[in-house]
């Protein structure tokens, strides 16, 4: 019962098999097809994670119907020979692009920029990201979720967290009373999670967390700047159960020793606080500080909306940092690595999240970079995979539905050309993706991506971030 709305997404999707639409991308009829992946090596990502070789997986009505049972006559066969099947990936920290304005203005003014939802979501699907946790969710994201449920677009499952305590966010919550009200409103509005943010004061931070607990909403987020210089035990509180970036910890201290990382890990363990290391973002910040042109070389850059490309290239907040600041970023990144090692040593679960949507972090593509960096930081390939599958589903409390390959779970799956347990980069060798039982093979993925690219190229001239900001001044 805990996350009724999120679970509702699963339920509703399964009742929406016949939704009609005209786009060449979509063919919901397909969901009535029974699929049999034959001869495939299953990496189930259960705790035991015993690989099942040369197996048959039957997918029926958006679920994993059976493993190694007879194939019905009417089944559509997918050849899995020498291929590997993993659960669909979960990105635990995203900011999905949605209709809106460059900064907070009166909501009644309506969005200044509108986007094609499918183009926003295609990079997730193309990368096998079948669930995302939006840590800056707005009403527009409920709209996107409804578009997915209706079958108008193909997209990931979306868990939505409401931000409390941002500088210009609504509500800002300056005191515990406002903080508690903000949590209750978020609950009423249908958000499943609360994200605490940087500008909360100490008492309001604690009141928000306490109220969220009463409202049965889990809390993810930042560690408010108000705690800087205080003892770490002050900001580790029970029910603040997921830290949005390792940076939240590194910014609280000037002591970048392994002992400090171990202290954080111990406190996290005691309070059942999990961590999103978010290494991609920190590394990207230090690269952008030196050069923005390198962004153009990022995998997937051409699929980023031209307005956002323009923003990242012409109004990049990180670019041009002093040598001293660049040196500081490097220290932070090195400390991030120590934090990952210490959390692993202490047995604190870590879940993969990218901050996709933030300058230089591309939806879908960045999760594969994060997995690679987690392995470089000391996780095994299997631990990295678990961070983006089973463990993320556990934190979201939807592990009975997704996150592993087991009979009865929803068919969110990635078919890979090579074994990711041998090399984590093999998560990128995608031969096809099942999204809620819908099979999207490589050729369809390529069509979806090229649609985005073509549109971006054709509309490049229409979007200029600085011009948009100037137009708002008038
Ligand atoms: Zn974020």
Automatic annotation (TrEMBL):
<dbReference type="InterPro" id="IPR011059">
    <property type="entry name" value="Metal-dep_hydrolase_composite"/>
</dbReference>
<feature type="signal peptide">
    <location>
        <begin position="1"/>
        <end position="19"/>
    </location>
</feature>
<dbReference type="InterPro" id="IPR051781">
    <property type="entry name" value="Metallo-dep_Hydrolase"/>
</dbReference>
<feature type="domain" description="Amidohydrolase-related">
    <location>
        <begin position="85"/>
        <end position="440"/>
    </location>
</feature>
<dbReference type="InterPro" id="IPR032466">
    <property type="entry name" value="Metal_Hydrolase"/>
</dbReference>
<dbReference type="InterPro" id="IPR006680">
    <property type="entry name" value="Amidohydro-rel"/>
</dbReference>
<dbReference type="Pfam" id="PF01979">
    <property type="entry name" value="Amidohydro_1"/>
</dbReference>
<keyword id="KW-0732">Signal</keyword>
<protein>
    <submittedName>
        <fullName>Amidohydrolase family protein</fullName>
    </submittedName>
</protein>
């Amino acid at each position: 019962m805990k996350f009724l709305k999120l679970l509702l997404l699963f339920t509703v999707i399964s009742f929406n098999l016949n939704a009609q639409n005209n786009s060449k991308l979509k063919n919901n009829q397909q969901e009535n097809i029974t699929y049999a992946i034959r001869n495939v090596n299953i990496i189930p990502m259960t705790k035991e994670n015993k690989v099942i070789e040369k197996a048959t997986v039957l997918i029926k009505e958006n679920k994993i119907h059976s493993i190694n049972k007879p194939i019905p006559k009417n089944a559509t066969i997918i050849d899995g020979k020498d291929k590997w099947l993993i659960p669909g990936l979960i990105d635990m920290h995203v900011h999905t692009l949605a209709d809106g304005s460059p900064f907070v203005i009166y909501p009644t003014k309506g969005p200044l920029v509108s986007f094609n939802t499918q183009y926003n979501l295609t990079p997730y699907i193309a990368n096998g990201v079948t669930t995302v946790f939006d840590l800056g969710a707005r009403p527009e994201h409920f709209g996107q979720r409804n578009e997915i449920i209706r079958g108008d677009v193909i997209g990931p499952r979306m868990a939505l967290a409401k931000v409390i305590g941002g500088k210009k966010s609504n509500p800002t919550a300056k005191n515990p009373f406002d903080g508690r009200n903000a949590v209750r409103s978020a609950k009423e509005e249908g958000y499943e999670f609360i994200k605490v943010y940087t500008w909360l004061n100490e008492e309001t931070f604690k009141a928000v967390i306490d109220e969220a607990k009463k409202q049965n909403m889990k809390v993810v987020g930042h560690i408010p700047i108000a705690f800087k210089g205080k003892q770490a035990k002050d900001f580790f509180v029970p029910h603040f159960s997921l830290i949005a970036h390792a940076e939240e910890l590194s910014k609280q201290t000037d002591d970048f020793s392994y002992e400090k990382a171990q202290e954080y890990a111990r406190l996290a363990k005691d309070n059942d606080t999990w961590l999103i290391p978010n290494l991609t973002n920190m590394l990207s910040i230090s690269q952008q500080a030196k050069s923005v042109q390198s962004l153009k070389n990022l995998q997937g850059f051409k699929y980023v909306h031209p307005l956002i490309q323009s923003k990242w290239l012409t109004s990049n907040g990180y670019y041009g940092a002093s040598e001293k600041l660049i040196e500081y970023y490097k220290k932070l990144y090195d400390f991030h690595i120590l934090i990952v090692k210490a959390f692993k040593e202490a047995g604190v679960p870590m879940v993969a999240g990218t901050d996709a949507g933030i300058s230089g972090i591309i939806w879908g593509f960045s999760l594969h970079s994060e997995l690679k960096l987690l392995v470089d930081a000391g996780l095994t390939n299997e631990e990295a995979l678990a961070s983006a599958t089973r463990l993320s589903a556990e934190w979201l409390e939807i592990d009975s539905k997704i996150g592993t390959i087991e009979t009865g779970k929803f068919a969110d799956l990635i078919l890979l050309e090579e074994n990711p347990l041998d090399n984590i980069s093999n998560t990128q060798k995608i031969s096809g993706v099942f999204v809620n039982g819908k099979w999207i093979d490589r050729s369809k993925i390529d069509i979806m991506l090229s649609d985005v690219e073509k549109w971006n190229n054709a509309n490049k001239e229409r979007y200029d971030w600085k011009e948009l900001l100037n137009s708002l001044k008038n």
